[in-house]
Amino acid sequence: MAEKIKFESPLIQLAVERKLISMEQFGQCRELVKKSRRIGLESSFEEVLLKQGFLTEEQLHELSEIITLGEKGDFFGGYRLQRLIGKGGMGKVYEAVHEFTGRKVALKVLTVQFTKERTNVSRFFQEVRALAKLGHPNIVTLFDAGKAGRRYYFAMELVDGPSLAEYVTKKKMLDEREALLMTVQIARALSFAHAGSIVHRDIKPENILVDEHYTPKVTDFGVVMHQDEDHMTLTQEGFMVGSVHFSSPEQVEGMRDIDGRSDIYSLGATLYYMLTGKTVFTGKSAEEVLTKHLVGTWTSPRHHNPSISPAVVRLIRKMMARSRDKRYQSMDQVIAAIQRIILPRWYLRVLAAAGIGILLFAAGSLFEVFTGFWELLLH
To answer: Do 70-158 and 164-341 have matching folds?
Structure first.
């Protein structure tokens, strides 16, 4: 039915096709637009939709973004776009379905203004190459990459769940065991990346997704550093890349020789956030926070969450040592340190269970002996 009607714009047609507005609402708006013009008012169809409360500004903006991607409206690069799920510094991420396979994906599209800069395009494809190398259960999977019109894109695994930032916000803070189990999985993912000479350099709760099984998955490798001479040109001495609250001191200083120990610092800051719901450093400006990474004194996480064990405080302190030479020197060392914290408790539980079992067995044996002796006396 919608196909036989001449719509005022592709945006209105898309709104009807997606059942965001009904045909009755469409007809009402069309009549209101005509009445407005008869009395000398020029109201667009979109403005009437907003005034009538049939669509929100956010929905209009999202439909507009989808329309601008391609001449066929919500169809782009072999994918049918469903909804906007995120925005980043270089592009937007849509939930999309591959037209031929039916696979649901997260489609990252680089905005046109960034394609004019060769460095930005290089960074975009650096992320693609990084993801292509990283087949790991705790890293989002890359499915496809390419160019449609003037826009570059790549399709990756669609994680059905919130970011770690959203997850922690909802729970206020995580208990120690859950936070450590999350951290050790993230550390394994980064250990795998580091083994391939790839440093993430922007580890933070927003760049970790939590799926329906509560498994963390690292994403957004847009500012990765390949540790070889061919890729070093993308980062210049004195230019900081990373996020304010989770950046390592060497990133704040703009050092060029960033290595995996920077990710260790950021993961330590992320663990702190998981346990407390707060960032390690706060300030009235980005500059103030960055300065604290260099010279500030951090507040123990136990101040915000007294249930945190001293062993975990020591773990975070070493992960976030200001000098990278004083941190753990690899993610494998971080994993081993976490396991030393988790496993003793596991051993204690096993020993306690075994001890109870032995006591019950001994008590049962003694009862049998006593019963047998009593029967002898009676006979």
So the answer is: no
For residue 170, what are the contacts with CB-CB under 8 A and spacing of at least 6? 162
**How far is Cα 276 from Cα 308, in angstroms, rounded to an integer?**
9
HSE value, Cβ hemisphere, 13 Å, CA-based, for 180: 21
Provide the token pair at 230.
Answer: 């061919």
Q: Write down the pTM of the prediction.
A: 0.71
* 223: its two tokens: 């500012």
Domain range list for the chain: 1-55, 70-158, 164-341
Whether 249 and 238 have beta carbons less than 8 Å apart is answered as no
| CB neighbour list of residue 181: distance below 8 Å, 6 or more residues apart | 342
> 278: which 2 tokens?
């707060």
Q: For 158, which DSSP code?
A: -
The confidence score (pLDDT) of residue 58 equals 78
Q: Which residues, in sequence order, are bridge partners of residue 96?
A: 81, 105
pLDDT over threshold 60, residue 269: yes
Give alpha helix (H) positions in the chain: 10-17, 23-38, 45-51, 57-69, 112-115, 118-133, 164-171, 176-195, 249-252, 260-276, 286-295, 310-319, 331-378
Instruction: Give the three-state DSSP class for 153.
Output: strand
Fold classified for 164-341: Transferase(Phosphotransferase); domain 1 (1.10.510)
DSSP code for 76: E
CATH class (in words) of the domain with range 70-158: alpha beta
Quick one: tokens of 351?
């020993």
How far is residue 134 from each of residues 129, 160, 191, 257, 359, measured CA to CA in Å? Answer: 9, 20, 11, 22, 50
Single-letter amino acid code for the residue at 180: L
Amino acid letter, 184:
V
Using the predicted structure, report yes or no on whether residue 246 has a pLDDT greater than 90.
Answer: yes
- 202 catalytic, yes or no? yes
Q: How far apart are CA 144 and CA 166, in angstroms?
A: 27
Q: Which residue from 173, 179, 171, 174 is spatially nearest to 267, judged by alpha carbons?
A: 179
Active-site residue (options: 202, 220, 259, 263): 202
Cα end-to-end span (Å), the chain: 97
Residue 9 has, within 13 A of its CA and on its CB side, a CA count of: 11
